[in-house]
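Journal club prep, notes for RB
We'll compare a predicted complex against what the paper describes. Inputs for the adenosine-5'-triphosphate case:
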Amino acid sequence: MARAGKVADGVANVTLREPGRFFALSLDTFRAMFKWPFQWQEFLQQAWFIVSVTVAPTIMVAIPFGAVLSLQVGNLIRQLGAQSQTGSTAVLAIVREASPIVTALLIAAAAGSAICADLGARKIREEIDAMEVLGINPLHRLVVPRVLACAFVGLFLNGIVSVVGIAGGYVFNVMLQGGTPGAYIASFNGLAQLSDLYQAEVKAVVFGVTAALVASYKGLTASGGPKGVGDAVNQTVVIAAMALFVENFVLSALYFQLVPQKGM
Amino acid sequence: MGVEIRVEGLTKSFGRQVIWEDVTLTLPAGEISVLLGPSGTGKSVFLKTMVGLLKPDRGHCWIGDKDMPNLREHDMYEVRKLFGVLFQDGALFGSMNLYDNVAFPLREHTRKSESEVRRIVMEKMEMVGLVGAENKLPGEISGGMKKRAGLARALVLDPEIILCDEPDSGLDPVRTAYLNQLIVDLNAEIDATFLIVTHDINTARTVPDNIGLLFLRQLVMFGPREMLLSSEEPVVRQFLNARRVGPIGMSEEKDISELEAEARLGRDPGELPPIPPQLMTSDGRIRRTQRPPGEWLRTHGVTAPPGSFIDEMGRDWLQEWPRYIAAMSAGAGQHPEGAR
Ligand SMILES: Nc1ncnc2c1ncn2[C@@H]1O[C@H](COP(=O)(O)OP(=O)(O)OP(=O)(O)O)[C@@H](O)[C@H]1O
Ligand SMILES: [Mg+2]
């Protein structure tokens, strides 16, 4: 009986209470966003910090991603005899789907874990409590700059992934698969359109905001000493990655519904 | 001017663990109160509940005319500006050096110039004896230094209510003596309402105007210092005299077999020791709230245990204290207790 009660309690916690508190925090953060003065210094510091932990891994992931896509698509297309379209398919795949996913993973893993670890450590050292007692809202002071910095950096990260991925695909296709540079470039915008880039950028911003909110929530509710912070970081990465994939699906579905696609 | 704090029927639990129930007490404005209790009875939780960091299950905590647990968030941040809080571990901002930590509240809440900030910060640093350590990071200093830096930060805005969670833990006896004097002097100077959590029995016996004792989820007693020091209530008596004989055991409550064994041995708790004189301000001023020794007992018709006001040096403080004050204010820095 007692065990059943505990299980029910746990289920309610996971399905209702935690999401409820998370959305409450998100709402409060949103409200705090419009409070004066904006914390520029913290924003710039955080943006720079997130850039420094994400750019190198992003590039390292984007190159093989572009190459693999070229490999898959290039082979298929050769068999269909449509070599003239290699460029268009690679660009479409990278800009529309691959770059938001890579961006999402890196923001969740690199930026999310760093934010959660930082806030979690402050929480268990009672720094957050001290801040509140000193009459300062930690959401305004710490969370808002991090959320905006994450969104801002996500925007650029997505751009980097697109450029590096396409360049990687080009190099792979032209140098190793014997494709012609002309065909790659000429078919560049055969399928993809500018709105594909826009939707990818929108996704990147949404991912940045989500990852930062999840990380902040987990960090600010960390308890139980250093081990608690470790657990919180771990959960941040898992939850943020899942949330970002779901969001990616939803946003893609919306995009296909709302924006007419180019035909061949 | 300090602010009166009235706590009414406050109850706090974490999940199914009840921390304390129906705590009711009034911290008189401008007086020093001490909260005692065995480790783990929820003293830190009580302080955090008072400033609204933890939400009680029920009850009120009136800060002036504002009921802290039931305030809207915005109002809560306003009321918190009255507070200066020293956390158990200092809670310094790890990314800032001590100077910036102490300067933080000034920079956030006042429009003082940097030079003025510097003057105030250095004054507080000197007060807690940390001059020379301003550029150290919290990770690079000892526990006692963290405590003192945390105290400096709590005091920097001249708060009306000061809550200190074990200001003297981790400090040597000399520093503790200075700190106690500092608290008494501060109280005379800015007239703030103090609540101090401590495990130091000497501090508890000599510094406060009021003492409270938490034990087994209850506030066992709260009242004037003399009342608790002369109380025959077993828990209070055991705790304030640091005895093993009594209801408090190693794991908070003694079990029945232990109590029976104690009863068989017929260990009697002994006579109550005399009530020591309350610590006076170092400059000889009498504090607004300070009662002459023994006054509470007289006005309440309670007889003090024999020799209550006679200290180790054989002076009877019921007679001595007016002369003490006179000698102090006649001054020339002459401390009537001689070289201490
Ligand atoms: N955030 C929390 N969640 C769950 N339980 C908590 C929390 N904070 C404190 N407790 C519990 O509340 C009880 C009281 O803790 P508290 O820190 O207030 O004790 P204390 O009286 O300050 O002890 P000490 O004198 O050792 O500092 C402990 O049993 C602790 O386990
Ligand atoms: Mg404590």
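Talking point for the session: Helices of chain A lie at 2-32, 40-80, 86-124, 127-133, 138-176, 181-186, 194-220, 225-258.
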